[in-house]
């Protein structure tokens, strides 16, 4: 890597290896937005931490190893969230398939109440909650994805959850 200012060196490194990092992230994650986020995360990590040791291998190999590791971590998190959602979906389906009319009516009422409450949220609040709970993104990742400040994401999520709590009451 040529002798340059740190930002110029990072830009040079990105120009040299950014496409390779993105391609690997995309191949593993199968999601262009997540691959873009991960690419940015990898280069920021490289820049902010002094973990790269040239004697252990080249910069490209380090970046690709870091990309692979972070992508697999995201897949694991996604899998955990997916399994939780599947389990909840099965519980709701079992409850709605119940032969007990009162039990089925109670479940249908909870589902209807939740849908009505979600419809009363603003579109930006809904978007933040969907990214957090259905895609499993952290608030930092949501801020990056939506290109908004982290504080705005936190406020939207907090306000949405408070509104849902008030709308749904002690259900």
From TrEMBL:
<protein>
    <submittedName>
        <fullName>Sigma-70 family RNA polymerase sigma factor</fullName>
    </submittedName>
</protein>
<keyword id="KW-0805">Transcription regulation</keyword>
<dbReference type="InterPro" id="IPR014284">
    <property type="entry name" value="RNA_pol_sigma-70_dom"/>
</dbReference>
<dbReference type="InterPro" id="IPR007630">
    <property type="entry name" value="RNA_pol_sigma70_r4"/>
</dbReference>
<dbReference type="InterPro" id="IPR039425">
    <property type="entry name" value="RNA_pol_sigma-70-like"/>
</dbReference>
<dbReference type="Pfam" id="PF04542">
    <property type="entry name" value="Sigma70_r2"/>
</dbReference>
<keyword id="KW-0238">DNA-binding</keyword>
<feature type="domain" description="RNA polymerase sigma-70 region 4">
    <location>
        <begin position="117"/>
        <end position="165"/>
    </location>
</feature>
<keyword id="KW-0731">Sigma factor</keyword>
<feature type="domain" description="RNA polymerase sigma-70 region 2">
    <location>
        <begin position="13"/>
        <end position="79"/>
    </location>
</feature>
<comment type="similarity">
    <text>Belongs to the sigma-70 factor family. ECF subfamily.</text>
</comment>
<dbReference type="Pfam" id="PF04545">
    <property type="entry name" value="Sigma70_r4"/>
</dbReference>
<dbReference type="InterPro" id="IPR007627">
    <property type="entry name" value="RNA_pol_sigma70_r2"/>
</dbReference>
<dbReference type="InterPro" id="IPR013325">
    <property type="entry name" value="RNA_pol_sigma_r2"/>
</dbReference>
<dbReference type="InterPro" id="IPR036388">
    <property type="entry name" value="WH-like_DNA-bd_sf"/>
</dbReference>
<dbReference type="InterPro" id="IPR013324">
    <property type="entry name" value="RNA_pol_sigma_r3/r4-like"/>
</dbReference>
<keyword id="KW-0804">Transcription</keyword>
């Amino acid at each position: 890597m040529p002798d340059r200012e740190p930002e110029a060196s990072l830009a040079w490194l990105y120009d040299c290896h950014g496409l390779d990092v993105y391609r690997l992230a995309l191949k593993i994650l199968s999601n262009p937005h997540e691959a873009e986020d991960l690419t940015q995360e990898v280069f920021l990590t490289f820049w902010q931490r002094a973990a790269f040791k040239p004697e252990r291998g080249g910069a490209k190999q380090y970046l690709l190893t870091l990309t692979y590791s972070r992508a697999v971590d995201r897949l694991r998190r996604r899998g955990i969230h997916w399994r939780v959602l599947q389990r909840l979906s099965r519980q709701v389906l079992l409850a709605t398939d119940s032969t007990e009319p009162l039990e089925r009516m109670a479940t249908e009422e909870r589902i209807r109440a939740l849908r009505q409450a979600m419809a009363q949220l603003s579109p930006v609040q809904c978007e933040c909650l969907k990214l957090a709970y259905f895609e499993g993104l952290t608030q930092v990742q949501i801020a990056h994805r939506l290109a908004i400040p982290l504080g705005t994401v936190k406020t939207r999520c907090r306000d949405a959850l408070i509104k849902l709590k008030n709308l749904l009451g002690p259900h």
